[in-house]
Amino acid sequence: MEFADFAARASEIESESADIAITESVTELLGEADDDLATLARFVQGRVFPAHESTTLDIGPRLCYEAIARAAGQNVSADDVETRLAERGEIGEVAASYDFGGQRGLAAFGSGGEDALTVATVADELSALAAVTGSGSQETKVDMLFGLFNRADPEEARYLARLVLSEMRIGVGDGTVRDAIAAAFDAPVDAVERALQVSNDYGYVAEVARDEGETGLAAIDLEVGRPVQAMLAQAGTSTGALEDWEAVAVEWKYDGARVQVHFDGESARLFSRNMEEVTDPLPEIVATVDDALETPAILDGEVVAVDDDGAPLPFQEVLRRFRRKHDVAATREDVTVRLHLFDCLHADGEDLLDAPLRERHDRLESLFPPDTVSDLWTTDDPARIADIEAEALEAGHEGIMLKDPDAAYTPGKRGKNWRKRKPDVETLDCVITGAEWGEGRRANVLGTFELSVRTDDGFAHVGNVATGFTDAELDAVTERLEPHISAESGREVALDPHLVFEVGYEEIQTSSNYDAGYALRFPRFLAVREDKTPDDADSLSRVGRLADAE
């Protein structure tokens, strides 16, 4: 398929306002895809690679602006592109506003020529771009991206720019593509949903649905070495859990970093909650798994930093290990970590997602020594739950997890079957969508940050945070956010969604000052949520629930 045809279909989808019409348009696109099916199933969501892969383009906004500027002509600079972005508000609109035709030679006078972009060409070029590393890699990436923009007409440039920056924004979410796959290839939605859960690859599932139907989808299993999304918890209470379930499975809640363990029978690989590989920074965890396991397995757990006495340290300490790429041995001496496993998704060739929690935990205990497996108490006594919580807090942990002992493991779902209970003041995980430069001696760092939460079609502002930071934290946050500045006016900057802050607050009030309709009273910075992306941040609906509960 020519990329111009994809761009035209994306434009049609973007113009639709009804969910049903959007799904129908995506269904038609997938039905016409032929050899490009897997690529289009990802592109329409703004993805270049399967969700389970940690491969990224590593192209920030500034590099994208440079490529656009070069394709636009000698009199255009990256600053000009950024200025136009501030005026128009969206990178696709900016890219489409330039005439790249003058840079494309005779191919500009007609579509379908030898120089016409195809979906396959774009996918191949972006994959090659992602593979560029080392000295001079940024310049090479800009050159390669310039080559693509140089061949693009305005509509192609609109969606190419969005794809490069993962900002497709045409109203297509995971559920839309799931339903479109089912409709396009006459497959049950439940079968597609299950296949997506275990494979985490919309392109692959689309091809199987088309070529092998329901039988093929049912045959897709978990694969050791291919991470899946973690099952998530929502806030809850022991009273609510006991009302919903006959008994409650209770675990300690650790203040660590989620880790998914994959053991292929010989060696272990580790993946973070965002499915990024973290094997190299955690050699002692790898050794723990290699020593204990003999058969293939996929396990879920938490890595916690501990002091010399084995007492847990704050979450930020374990992140020093997760983010370390060089000189791991030195950091290992500074930060000791311990593995706590609490679930078993696969063991010795058998997928266990559909097995009840109590059975999965029994299987886990059969694989590992007790000091590595989290205790799981099952009770219907509120007093016993309170005692377990008190023990967890006394041991220095966050609180407790409340789980339905009969529930299956549902990757990527934040359902009612897992509930977290923390006695502390409630916190929110907010996306940073804007900021202000400081003043005086802090004029070179960002000092006030715009807090936003997820909505169905973007993010909504719920307040600003300027307290709780050390000078070192402000320096580090500024360094990480500067490449994601999309526009600047005086001291104020707009930021592409990239970083998630955990913030505490005194209360949530209704407010007309922010587009969320709510405002956080006395917000304060607690930590950067390294384990979360903007898609994992808290939602506006959760803010509403918390406000109603106050």
Name its key features.
alpha+beta, D-amino Acid Aminotransferase, Chain A, domain 1, 19 strands, OB fold (Dihydrolipoamide Acetyltransferase, E2P), DNA ligase i, domain 1, 550 residues, 20 helices
Explain what this protein looks like in three dimensions.
The chain is of the alpha+beta class and 550 residues long. The protein has helices at residues 3-15, 19-31, 37-43, 61-72, 78-88, 91-97, 119-130, 137-150, 154-164, 174-184, 189-199, 202-219, 238-244, 283-292, 315-322, 328-334, 357-367, 382-394, 471-481, 540-549, and strands spanning 232-235, 248-253, 257-263, 268-272, 297-306, 336-347, 350-351, 377-379, 399-403, 414-421, 427-437, 446-455, 458-465, 485-489, 492-495, 500-504, 507-510, 518-521, 524-528. Strands 11, 12, 13, 14, 15, 16 and 19 form a seven-stranded antiparallel beta sheet that branches. Strands 1-10-9-2-8 form a five-stranded mixed beta sheet. Strands 4-3-5-6-7 form a five-stranded antiparallel beta sheet. Strand 12 (446-455) and strand 13 (458-465) form a beta hairpin. Helix 1 packs across helix 9, helix 4 crosses helix 8 (137-150) and helix 10 packs across helix 11 (189-199).
For the record, the CATH architecture of the largest domain stands as 2-Layer Sandwich
The amount of helix comes to 25-40%
* Approximate strand percentage: 15-25%
Number of domains in the coordinates? 3
CATH topology annotation of the largest domain: D-amino Acid Aminotransferase, Chain A, domain 1
Note the main sheet: 7 strands, antiparallel
Number of strand segments: 19
CATH class of the largest domain: Alpha Beta
Coarse structural class: alpha+beta
What is the assigned CATH homologous superfamily of the largest domain? DNA ligase/mRNA capping enzyme
Shape: globular
- Estimate the mean pLDDT confidence: 90
The oligomeric status of these chains comes to single chain
Q: How far is the first residue's CA from the last residue's CA?
A: 54 Å
Number of helices: 20
Q: Residue ranges: pLDDT <50 for 5 or more in a row?
A: 102-113
Q: What would you report as the Rg, rounded to the nearest angstrom?
A: 25 Å
